[in-house]
Amino acid sequence: MTKRTLVQFFHWYYPDGGRLWNDVGERAEEMAGMGVTDVWLPPAYKGSAGGQSIGYDVYDLFDLGEFDQKGSRATKYGDRTQLENATNSLRSAGLRVIHDVVLNHKIGADEAERVMVRRVNPDNRTEIEDEAFEANAWTRFTFPGRAGEHSKFVWDMRCFTGVDHIEDPDENGVFKLVNEYGDGEWNSEVDQEMGNFDYLMGADVEFRNNAVYEELKYWGRWLSERDCQDFRVWPGIMGNKESHYVTTQRTCHTE
């Protein structure tokens, strides 16, 4: 069995300016000569902070620096063409390409919706108030800058389990969305930190909605056919369905 050496080619404080894709492509042969076999790249998609996003404030998985959204076309690391060139250079040097991905939540919705929510104890998410009430929540993602290219899927309140901010009334906290999935409860197939670690931040993705699950599978295949051979996934909050998702998308690295 061939021993493999992985390099993480990014860090939290990597500078803005769209240089990373060019940098990693230019150093492909050098890394291969040093015995590196796998190169771990940061999230390639558009975050809610646009060109300043590190990639964990997930906005549009299908925007790899191709569309004018969230104030920029390129991501923090470069544009789509630069990513493709970097990927080609890495593969030509015999290196495997691993992308960091976040599927747990989305941030930066394009529209608010009128929804029913229940307040949750943020320190123990199993404590959910019985009474539901109406509020506005930013849960509708239409991606107007992409205009349906690559995927026409629109995310709405049925695609999420909860949010951390509501309006009318204006409150911050943890709020369980009331919809047809999960009988008003969080996904139970998760880590038990804070009682239940299904909810982490932003608009939390509802994997029990099969339309969401199928859309993420489609995205995984779409990315694998273009710029990615492997994914890096943190398993601490994953349930069975999420685990099945990542194991069906080429190779899965976990930590």
Task: Summarize the SSE layout with pairings.
Elements: E1 6-8, H1 20-26, H2 28-33, E2 38-41, E3 46-47, E4 58-60, H3 80-92, E5 96-100, E6 105-106, E7 111-120, E8 133-140, E9 160-166, E10 171-177, E11 203-205, H4 210-224, E12 230-233, H5 240-247, E13 251-254
Parallel strand pairs: 1-2, 2-5, 5-12, 12-13
Antiparallel strand pairs: 3-4, 6-11, 7-8, 7-10, 9-10, 9-11
Helix pairs in contact: 1-3, 4-5
Pfam families: Alpha-amylase
Domain Glycosyl hydrolase family 13 catalytic: 4-255
EC number: 3.2.1.1
Structure keywords:
about 260 residues, alpha/beta, TIM Barrel, Elongation Factor Tu (Ef-tu), domain 3, 2 domains, 6-stranded antiparallel β-sheet, 5-stranded parallel β-sheet, 5 helices
Protein model, in words:
- The protein has 255 residues and is α/β, with parallel strands linked by helices.
- The protein folds into two domains: 6-105 and 213-254, TIM Barrel; 107-207, Elongation Factor Tu (Ef-tu), domain 3, CATH 2.40.30.140.
- It is built from five helices and 13 strands.
- It has helices spanning 20-26, 28-33, 80-92, 210-224, 240-247; strands at residues 6-8, 38-41, 46-47, 58-60, 96-100, 105-106, 111-120, 133-140, 160-166, 171-177, 203-205, 230-233, 251-254.
- It has a six-stranded antiparallel β-sheet, with no helix packed on it. Strands 1-2-5-12-13 form a five-stranded parallel β-sheet. A two-stranded antiparallel ribbon has the order 3-4.
- A hairpin with a 4-residue loop joins strand 9 (160-166) and strand 10 (171-177).
- Helix 4 runs parallel beside helix 5 (240-247).
- The protein is elongated, with a radius of gyration of 19 Å.
- The two termini are 21 Å apart.
- The model is unreliable at 244-255 (pLDDT under 50).
